[in-house]
């Protein structure tokens, strides 16, 4: 396909049709995860990025899922619709709306209400109304959590909805942001991503993360078809290249720190680097193993602290490795090191934050309030940064 002129300002609202040039498995046979490395070519886009930024990817839904929805609706896909959540200036074809514009998951209680109003089968109507009983709030929440829109059409076939009524219950299909795993110093027109491909089952159906499976399964290599944009971030390295850097990134949280290391080496930064990485098993889940070991052997990585949660009877996590190295970690922080965390916000980042507070209190001989104040100051000085999700 011919590319738009590079002078066009590509953005979230006007994404660039990028070319994926690499899609390879990082995890090895036997891993519980499918983690992939992607390379995205930005040539001709005029887009630039810095380490710490993210790449926005605008996915499409699986054609098979769209076809199944159309079949249950009794629609051809050529019907014109104006989904209320898209705020369109003119209607679009139902097939296009379901493929590129609307999320096929996440039905709400509003959908159950509409189905109950349209159901003509007494048994279906009774089940729907029971779910809407105020006393059944928890039951309804659990019911919806296990279902996508297609499940509801399957379970309540007597409720005939027009395409317009159906799409008015659907949310906009949103782009996904992924931490960039490369430095523009090495790859000025290319972006690397480190992504776990999400595949699971609910309600007896195989499901997939919309964007991770889009990149893994549906983007053909070497064709300018994947809509992307760069999302700029305040997450980034210290301007002073003599400063030490501590990076905590288990799993795919390692992505921005691969970029950080490439940048530090390319700029000749003299500050020391310390990486905390962890996953389930060393033999199957050591992402970019050769690169990290090479940095270590070359003396560019002062410490590589590894935590494998399933390689021994007692689970070991990155925060455990922080505690093991508490004295030296405090020495680095006290000496002006910057501390970075990337990954799961709900569990890992929270545990790492609590461990950081505890280490500063214990090693710095402070009470909890003083340690909290110290961490607060680190954040103000941009010496403690988080890229969590």
Sum up the structure in keywords.
single chain, 389 residues, alpha/beta, Elongation Factor Tu (Ef-tu), domain 3, NADPH-cytochrome p450 Reductase, Chain A, domain 3, Rossmann fold, six-stranded antiparallel beta sheet, five-stranded parallel beta sheet, 15 strands, globular, disordered N terminus
Morphology call: globular
Here the CATH topology of the largest domain equals Rossmann fold
Strand content: 15-25%
- Give me the CATH superfamily of the largest domain: Nucleotide-binding domain of ferredoxin-NADP reductase (FNR) module
> How would you state the average pLDDT, rounded?
96
User: What's the helical proportion of residues?
Assistant: 25-40%
Oligomer: single chain
Structural class computed from helices and strand pairing: alpha/beta
Number of self-contained structural domains: 3
- CATH architecture name of the largest domain: 3-Layer(aba) Sandwich
Instruction: Report on the biggest sheet.
Output: 6 strands, antiparallel
The unreliable regions are 1-7
The radius of gyration is: 24 Å
Order of helix and strand elements from N to C terminus: EEEHEEHHHHHHEEEEHEEHEHHEHHEHHE
DSSP, total strands = 15
- Major sheet strand order: 6-3-10-1-2-7
The CATH C-level name of the largest domain is: Alpha Beta
- Count every helix, treating DSSP H or I runs of 4 or more residues as helices: 15
């Amino acid at each position: 396909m011919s590319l738009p002129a590079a002078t066009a300002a590509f953005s979230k609202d006007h994404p660039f049709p990028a070319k994926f040039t690499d899609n390879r498995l990082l995890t090895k046979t036997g891993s519980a995860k499918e983690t992939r490395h992607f390379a995205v070519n930005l040539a001709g886009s005029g887009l630039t990025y810095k380490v710490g930024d993210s790449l926005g990817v605008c996915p499409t839904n699986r054609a098979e899922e769209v076809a199944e929805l159309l079949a249950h609706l009794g629609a051809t896909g050529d019907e014109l619709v104006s989904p209320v959540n898209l705020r369109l200036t003119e209607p679009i074809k139902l097939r296009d709306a379901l493929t590129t514009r609307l999320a096929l998951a996440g039905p709400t209680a509003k959908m159950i209400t509409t189905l109950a109003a349209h159901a003509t089968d007494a048994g279906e109507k009774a089940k729907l109304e029971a779910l809407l009983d105020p006393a059944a709030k928890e039951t309804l929440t659990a019911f919806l959590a296990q279902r996508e829109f297609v499940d509801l059409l399957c379970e309540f076939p007597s409720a005939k909805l027009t395409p317009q009524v159906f799409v008015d219950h659907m949310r906009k299909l949103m782009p996904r942001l992924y931490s960039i795993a490369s430095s523009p110093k090495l790859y000025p027109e290319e972006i690397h991503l480190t992504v776990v491909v999400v595949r699971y089952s609910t309600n007896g159906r195989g499901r997939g993360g919309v964007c991770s499976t889009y990149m893994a399964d549906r983007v053909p290599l070497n064709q300018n078809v994947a809509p992307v944009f760069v999302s700029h971030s305040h997450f980034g390295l210290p301007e002073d290249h003599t400063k030490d850097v501590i990076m905590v990134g288990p799993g795919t949280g390692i992505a921005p720190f691969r970029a950080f290391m490439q940048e530090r080496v390319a700029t000749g930064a003299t500050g020391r680097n310390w990486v905390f990485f962890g996953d389930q098993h060393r033999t199957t889940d050591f992402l970019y193993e050769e690169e990290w070991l090479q940095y270590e052997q070359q003396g560019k990585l002062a410490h590589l602290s590894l935590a494998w949660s399933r390689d021994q009877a007692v689970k070991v996590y990155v925060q455990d490795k922080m505690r093991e190295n508490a004295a030296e970690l405090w020495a680095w922080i006290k000496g002006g090191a910057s501390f970075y965390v990337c990954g799961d916000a709900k569990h890992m980042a929270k545990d790492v934050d609590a461990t950081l507070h505890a280490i500063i209190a214990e090693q710095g001989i402070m009470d909890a309030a003083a340690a909290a104040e110290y961490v607060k100051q680190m954040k103000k000085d941009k010496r403690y940064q988080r890229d969590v999700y």
